[in-house]
Amino acid sequence: MPDATSPATPPHAIPSDVASSPGASDLLGERGRGELAERMGIEFTELSADRSVATMPAEGNRQPIGLVHGGAYCVLAESLGSMSANAHAITLGRYAVGIDINATHTRSVRSGTVTGTCTAVHLGSTMTVHEIVVTDEDGRRISTARITNLLRDR
Length: 154
What we know:
HotDog_dom_sf, hydrolase, Thioestr_dom, PAAI_dom, Thioesterase domain-containing protein, 6 strands
């Protein structure tokens, strides 16, 4: 495991859907997923400003009673929303920082893999809003999140 001073380990393997998205391939290849996302096993399968998808294993992300921790869903959601916002921001010569996230968990998961699908609600010049729906392996919605990112000048 890297020490606290070493960066995340880019380049991350870039899925073919990401490679065709303007800005997104460079973003993921240069910055990587981030240390927390790496530790939690989050894997991007799509990345663009409009739509991104990533998976996360239940194993290693559970609370003591055996359910996936609600905070893990929030990390998955923020990872997706922030990367999507930055895929938009990079095309404007800006970068995105999260200013709000909220989530409602409607089901629980004990094992397997969850999938987060992030969809743009608003892509502006100073702010983005994304909705993230997390589903279980049977496609049932288990959490819904919304993230707002502020776009800042480089």
